[in-house]
Every structure is written in C-alpha cells, then in structure tokens.
Amino acid sequence: MHFGRVFHASPHQTSIYHYFQIAMPRQPLGEISGNSNYRGGTEGRFELTPHWRSHIVGRSAAGQSPKGIATDLNIPPATIQSTISRADSRYENESLHRSGRPNIISDSLRRRLLREVRANPKIRYRDLRLNLGLHGKAISRSSLYRELKKEGITNWLAKKRPALTPEIAAKRLQFAKDHEHWGPREWKTFLWSDECSVERGSGKQRQWVFRTPAQKWDREMIQPYNKGKDKSVMVWACFGGDGRKSDLVFMPGDPEAKRGGVTSAVYLEVLEEQMPTLWEPGLIYMQDGASIHTARIIKRWLADNGIEVIDWPPYSPDLNPIEHVWRHLKEWVHEHYPELETLTGSDQIIKERMVEALQEAWAHINDEFLEKLVESMEKRMKAVIRADGWHTKY
Length: 394
Prior knowledge:
Arc Repressor Mutant, subunit A, five-stranded mixed sheet
C-alpha cells in the first residue's frame, strides 16, 4: 500500500500504525474524523497520535535534539519540530482545532449579495453573479448559496397562484374586512360549490427516495409521468357547514359549444337536480365568477327560486374551502384505484370508471373533515387582510 511518503522503520521501532493516524477512507456511515486529511485515491497524509506526540515531547524534555528524535523514530524533522513547538498549546497532545477553509466572500460582497437577492428575489444565479461583478472571479454558485444559507435564504420553487391585479386585490381585501368578525356559526350558513376538471393520474403525489447522488438517474429512482394531456372529467359538488352534501355530479361537455366545454345549460340542469335537497331559507349559495355561473339563465333561475348568492371576489380559490376537497378526492382515487391510470378501452368506459371512483371518494369524505374546512374561514380572512388582499397560503 502506498501512502504518498514511505517511512522505513528499524526493527526496534514500533510499527508506523502505532504512532501515526493514517488518513484512510472511512467506512460507509462511519464516523467522520475532524482531523482527517485524506484526499482520495491511494495518497493521503499522516497525523501523529497523542501517544506519540507525548513520546516526542518527552524525549525533547529529556534533552534529546529534534534531529536526533527524527533520526531515531524515522519521522521527518519538520514534524518533530512542529510537534515540540505546539506542545504547550495542545491539551494532552490532542490535535488542535482547525479553522477550516477561509471565507472567500468579503463583508462588503456579502452585504451587496443580500441587497441584490432581496431586491430581485427571482433573479437567476447567472444574472446574480453578473450584477455583483463576479464574472471571471473564482467565486462559484455554491459559494453564493452557502453565504445566503447562513442568512436563512435559499432557493425555493415559486408557489403557483392566480394572477392578481391591484384592483382584484382591493376587492379581496374588502371582502375579508367585511367578514373579518364572522365565526363558524356564520360560515356554516354557506353552501360551498365548485366544479373541478379531474385528469387521470392527477392525484399522484411526489415520491421521495433514499439514494446516493450517484443514483440520481437510476431507473428505479425516477418518478415517471405520462407526456401530454390524459383523459379528464368535469365534476360538480356542494357542501354546507351543517353536514349537508350534494351528490358528486358528472358534467359532460357540449359538443356544439365552443371547444366542447361545459355550458350554462348543463350547469342549470345540475342546480335543478341538486338544490332542492340542499337549500333552505337562511342559507347562502356560494359560487365563483365563472362565466357559466354568471349567465342570465342562471341568475334568473336563482332569483326565481329565492336563492341568495353572495358577491364573491374574483380569482379567490384560496377563499373557497371546497378546493381542498378536490385535492383530497384526487389523492384518494389514485391510492384506491391505481389501475385507472393504465385502464384501456373507449373514452366513455374510462370516463365512467373515473366518475364512479370519484363518487366513491366523495362518499368517504366525513363531516369532520368538511367542518374543519369551514372553521378555517376565519383564518383565511385574517390571512387575506395580512396580505393586503394578495395571495395567501391557502
């Protein structure tokens, strides 16, 4: 075995393994030595053990010269000299604490770095280096990352939310202020409704894997997804804070409509079928501002039947608790009916099976889950007010 420098011990000397800590590769998951200087490959560096430092210091104290100690022990004279000179600063001849790599980022650069990312949080590392004048300098992206991490700043994927304008944010803020002091009793008078387009396989959650960096692209470490759009169905549902639940209704597209989408006529059929079992005087029907909801025939039908509708702020899915129900339904279907993802047959058969699975998932949602969603409305109003009408975590 080659250690970079060969020492020839005389027969009367103790084995080199006894007085040197030889920096060797550690075992997987083994303890990392704070004094290890192993650089990989077959070459490494040696470090004296506390026992042999004491031995050297003892010889020196007895009057032997550093050169003589080096000759007797077959250890480089520089090692002997440094061991003796540092003896007083060591505790029981243990290795001294090493300060590590010096920081290559100055205080001035650190301040500029922080100002830049706070002023431009979506800036890319390439542009960040250019703005800081680091082109051609040996300060890498990793160095900038480590410096920012010290301040608790790291890269995150930006959350996706509907685009808001100042005017829309103002409407959201006013709505929240108008209902800031509402409690569960008031919010339970709402009938929360919405439609959802459910694509096959959409309930699949991101997978986590235990792997090494080298296994990053191994086939079993990949979470595959199908390219392009898969088959989807549009469904509608409604629930109230007092335990009321509609059926989960499939809403077919109209072939004669533009893009073959769901029309207000289809929505009207849903209301005519479901509302008689849900609504009663004193309740408020919640629907967003989608075009099929604001069509004249829908407004007329709601008015003719005395159903109160609240003026809902636009682009506010975070204020409608039923949005969390959709996510729950998709995950339930993916978990209990994974075969749907590879089901073959006609579009009609596949969509029928998807709707049946979603209806079963809807039936499994309990009152406690829905009640907690309604109770979250107080926090949602406060969150909108804190955000001055802009996006919230909901």
